[in-house]
């Protein structure tokens, strides 16, 4: 049990790094590709790999009733179409800093859903860890919500809520209903990406994409989406939804370091202290269950 949990945590940490690197790649890709088009092609590319793989491995036969199909469709709509689509729309209305700041509070929603739906209750130490993470996030971004763009804030909040619902629902299917990670990854992504593509291509006009643009899309689709989502759902099978959502907040640290290295963005003393608080908070949330498992 301890070994499986450690492997799941390592896998989830790798995914957060891949998703953090997406920030840099998307920034480059958006110089020539519209945001909804970029995210739609990214997820369609991932679905083109995952869905045939799942079918060839006989995972489609595990979906035996309409109720299960509806649950998988719900996952796709909440986690892909709404969460990812509205996140891009939020970035259109708000600076990336504001969007990231809002999404750092998603673990609170996951905590509530996990307690009610999954009966997974964090320990007092884990609650304290969450507090440190939120304080670190607040001071890192220096309270950037001083904006009059209410629409952007609401859109981003809905994106965060949808992602929290996706995490809790995926955890429920993986831990309580005995569906495997490939099934929970592939088919919802296929449903969600299809709706996202229909929306994107009806709103935005697809322009000519350069070789660099296609390289970014392929990497994002194959590695940062198809592979990353599969590993993420494998980890979600072993780790509670609240714990894995807290791990996502380490992206704040990783994105800051990647931006410093690749984009020459500065790291102030306040940001370094804030990153340390986030790291300690995440560590407290994870270590308590590692000790229990041992």
Describe the fold and architecture.
By secondary structure, this protein is mostly helical. The chain has one domain. Helices cover 81% and strands 0% of the residues. The longest helix has 28 residues. The chain is globular and about 50 Å long.
Sum up the structure in keywords.
mainly alpha, globular, 12 helices, 294 residues
DSSP E strands, number:
0
Mean pLDDT across every amino acid position: 87
Share in β-strands: under 5%
Low-confidence stretches: none
Gross morphology: globular
Helix content: over 70%
Total of domains: 1
Rounded Rg: 18 Å
Given the structure, what is the number of helices? 12
Biggest sheet overview: none
Structural class: mainly alpha
Whole-Å distance between the termini?
A: 8 Å
Order of helices and strands: HHHHHHHHHHHH
Question: Brief overview, please?
Answer:
With 294 residues, this protein is mainly α. It has twelve helices and no strands. The radius of gyration is 18 Å and the shape is globular.
Describe the protein's topology.
Elements: H1 2-29, H2 35-56, H3 66-93, H4 96-103, H5 106-118, H6 124-141, H7 150-175, H8 181-203, H9 211-238, H10 241-248, H11 251-262, H12 269-293
Helix pairs in contact: 1-9, 1-11, 2-3, 2-8, 2-9, 3-7, 3-8, 4-7, 5-7, 5-10, 6-12, 7-9, 8-9
């Amino acid at each position: 049990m301890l070994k499986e949990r450690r492997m799941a945590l390592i896998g989830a940490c790798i995914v957060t790094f891949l998703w953090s690197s997406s920030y840099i790649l998307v920034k480059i890709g958006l110089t020539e590709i519209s945001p909804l088009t970029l995210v739609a092609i990214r997820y369609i590319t991932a679905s083109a790999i995952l869905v045939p793989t799942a079918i060839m491995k006989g995972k489609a036969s595990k979906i035996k009733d309409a109720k299960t199909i509806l649950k998988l469709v719900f996952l796709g709509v909440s986690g892909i179409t709404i969460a990812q689509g509205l996140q891009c729309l939020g970035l259109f209305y708000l600076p990336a800093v504001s969007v990231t700041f809002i999404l750092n509070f998603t673990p609170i929603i996951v905590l509530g859903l996990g307690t009610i739906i999954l009966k997974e209750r964090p320990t007092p130490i884990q609650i304290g860890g969450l507090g440190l993470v939120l304080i670190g996030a607040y001071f890192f971004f220096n309270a950037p919500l001083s904006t009059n763009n209410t629409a952007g804030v609401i859109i981003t909040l809905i994106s965060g809520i949808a992602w929290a619902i996706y995490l809790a629902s995926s955890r429920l299917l993986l831990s309580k209903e005995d569906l495997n990670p490939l099934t929970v990854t592939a088919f919802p992504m296929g449903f969600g990406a299809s709706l996202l593509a229909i929306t994107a291509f009806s709103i935005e006009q697809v322009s000519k994409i350069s070789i660099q643009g296609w390289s970014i899309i392929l990497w994002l689709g194959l590695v940062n989406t198809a592979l990353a989502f599969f590993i993420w759902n494998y980890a979600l099978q072993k780790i509670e939804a609240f714990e894995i959502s807290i791990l996502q907040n380490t992206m704040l640290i990783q994105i800051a370091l990647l931006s410093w290295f690749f984009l020459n963005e500065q790291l102030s003393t306040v940001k370094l202290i804030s990153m340390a608080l986030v790291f300690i908070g995440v560590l407290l949330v994870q270590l308590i269950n590692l000790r229990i498992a041992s």
